[in-house]
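Need residues for this backbone.
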């Protein structure tokens, strides 16, 4: 693996290798094992054209736990505002010593473009591109789901994959790179996926994707899925014409306290709630659901560091 650009192109063997490596990395950052020397002398550049809290900071923490040097670059406040191109920016960063470029960009395809050219030799990691993909988010979600699936089945092992797990992805699928990356990876790992969305927030062509589609969240929850992944409503990418009202959205597609209580009443103790963050509390998810014992949101964030360590290690250590 030279780059990590998408989960669509990630084979099962590579995906499982990343997840297994992440399991080994999970012990790093503790009092017992603060750091590993694996990437000493390597430089990771976080090149972010869009805002981020979780992804940027966890890539920084991941690189530091592997003893790499980290350079954080935000397009805001840089020479990008003077018109500098992605090519010139990336080449400038490589001249400063970048061995890996972790790129978040508003344009779908920007990381693939950077990786496909001979502009730079550095490894490219897609940290979210437009509405296309967010592969490390899907990997950390799969890592979290794999642990949850082990708990549900009462087995010690983290297991190799998600065969037979039933996962529901709910909300603004149209604008969600998280939904796309998760769908491809979950299918690769053997999970069954159902997308639940307002009709106006499903992309054209979604009916050809390898998943079930529903417009009725309550009906889907009554099947007792193993996990429900709520998506952030991406108001910043939204044309008002697409959008149901906030009240209608919350009532029909939000994970509210009524739906949370219904899971308890139906005895679905195994159903976990995930959200990639940042959450719009009171919109796609209630505080009651987000802070409930079913919610794995902070576990997802913590697992993100282990998964990103695994990705950087496998790309940069030469041990692959
Ligand atoms: N989930 C996610 O990508 O969050 P950030 O935008 O904060 O990185």
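Answer:
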């Amino acid at each position: 693996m030279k780059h990590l650009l998408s989960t669509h192109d990630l084979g099962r063997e590579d995906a499982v290798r990343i997840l297994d490596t992440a399991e080994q990395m999970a012990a790093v950052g503790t009092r017992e094992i603060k750091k590993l020397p694996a990437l000493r002398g390597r430089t990771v550049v976080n090149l972010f054209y869009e805002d981020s809290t979780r992804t940027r900071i966890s890539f920084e923490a991941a690189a530091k736990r592997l003893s790499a040097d980290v350079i954080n670059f935000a397009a805001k406040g840089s020479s990008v505002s003077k018109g500098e191109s992605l090519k010139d920016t990336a080449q400038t960063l490589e001249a400063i010593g970048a061995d890996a470029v972790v790129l978040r960009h508003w344009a779908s395809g920007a990381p693939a473009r950077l990786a496909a050219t001979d502009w730079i030799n550095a490894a490219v990691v897609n940290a979210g591109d437009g509405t296309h993909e967010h592969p490390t988010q899907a990997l950390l979600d799969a890592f979290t789901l794999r642990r949850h699936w082990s708990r549900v089945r009462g087995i010690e092992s983290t297991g190799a994959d998600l065969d037979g797990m039933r996962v529901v992805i709910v909300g603004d699928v149209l604008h969600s790179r998280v939904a796309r990356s998760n769908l491809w990876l979950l299918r690769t790992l053997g999970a069954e996926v159902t997308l639940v969305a307002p009709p106006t927030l499903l992309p054209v062509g979604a009916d050809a994707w390898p998943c079930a589609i529903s417009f009725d969240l309550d009906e889907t929850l009554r099947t007792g899925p193993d996990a429900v992944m709520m998506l952030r409503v991406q108001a910043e990418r939204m044309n008002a014409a697409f959008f149901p009202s906030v009240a209608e959205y919350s009532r029909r597609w939000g994970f509210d306290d009524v739906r949370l209580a219904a899971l308890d009443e139906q005895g679905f103790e195994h159903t976990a709630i995930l959200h990639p963050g940042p959450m719009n509390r009171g919109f796609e998810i209630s505080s009651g659901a987000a802070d409930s014992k079913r919610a794995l949101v902070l576990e997802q964030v913590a697992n993100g560091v282990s998964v990103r360590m695994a990705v950087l290690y496998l790309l940069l250590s030469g041990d692959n």
